[in-house]
Amino acid sequence: MERDIDIRNEKAILVGVVTGGMTPETMQEHLDELTLLANTAGAEVIGQVTQRLAKINPAFYVGKGKASQIVGQAEELRANLIIFDEDLSPAQTKNYQNLTENIKVIDRSALILDIFRKHAKSKEAKTQVELAHLQYILPRLTRMWTHLERQMGGIGTRAGAGETQIEVDRRLIRNRISGLKKDLSRIEKERVTQSKRRKNEFKVALVGYTNAGKSTIMNTVSGANVYIEDQLFATLDTTTRAVKLKNGLGFLLSDTVGFIRKLPHHLVASFRSTLREVVESNLILIVLDASSEQITDHYKTIQSVLKELKAHKLRSLVVLNKIDLVNENNRLKYLKRVYPDGVMISAKNHLRIDHLLETIETIMKEAYSTIEMHFTYEQGQVMAQTEQGMEVLERHYGEDGVTLTLRGSIDRIEKIKSIFGVD
What we know:
- This protein is α/β, with parallel strands linked by helices.
- The chain folds into four domains: 11-114, Rossmann fold (3-Layer(aba) Sandwich), CATH 3.40.50; 120-195; 198-365, P-loop containing nucleotide triphosphate hydrolases (Rossmann fold, 3-Layer(aba) Sandwich); 369-420.
- 43% of the residues lie in helices and 19% in strands.
- The strands form three sheets. The chain has a six-stranded mixed β-sheet, sandwiched between helices. Strands 2-1-3-4 form a four-stranded parallel β-sheet, sandwiched between helices. Strands 11-13-12 form a three-stranded antiparallel β-sheet.
- Helix 11 (295-308) links the parallel strand 8 (283-289) and strand 9 (316-321).
- It is elongated and about 90 Å long.
- The termini are far apart.
């Protein structure tokens, strides 16, 4: 197969490329993030290499001379893994395999996929990650088909007459991809059914850079016991909990998989069913680490993923978490200037959580309203249609009919008023 990307206990060298208007400082920030990813996967980073490029080399991404230098440096340091911060094309990956037999060369997407494969716990997450992984390796199959059947869970058949091993591998992978897509389609239908049952609920989704504290906010606000660990992508499954406010209002809060810069497209596509909670939410809480120097870059990454999900136009609220780690007044002034409507909290220390809930309540009241409607007993069918997509707060039976107090979205209420000619 493709030299199994299990990089635990391996010694790695990172490669970063400075292109266009990128500054060396920005490149270093990216390599720092790549270091954290490598550490999360279990590798020890023992060196970094950077190069400024005017254009990308189609054969090795960097120049051929630089590629040989990187491999030589890895051999001197006794590294057995080279990780590029950019995605390598299938041809570039093949060229590096030809350049070195003993050192594994992978790109950022392969590294993130490796982390996701280790952290997938539920059947849905495992299915999503396996699909993304197979879509990634399919175009990269060359002479690396060893142990394919073991990696694919025992799936396989004998080669037909005249059929090469690589053709068998590709066919097996395509068949497996087709099966995984069908599995995810069934999961998608189940989620649609769940969404219908929750259509009358106000839905809030937590999104943010991985390790920004989303799960801590979930636990603090809802009292849930969501798994938390100080590492990237500690959990991949979406968790939804009901939250009740003091005035009787309530909402559903969902914690989703963390985002990261240049999240592989296959992962975003595979996790689309999980991220349905974001797309169908009434309010998106964009969680940022207030203490991070890369907060602006993180915010741009989140907006980019939301745009890819077609969720960027939904109502959102910036939540500046970990404010307890910000000790400088200038930093606080900067955050208030850049995110004037942002809510500053510390979920870990339960600071200003009430303010966050009050802000959510205000937004809920803006989005929802109530209406009182009277129906005769002969209008049972009309009454049932009116109740669709609405929450029945009160039902009063009188001599001449039923009076309902309904709560729902302003759009839905305006539509009802239009139908019945109510002012």
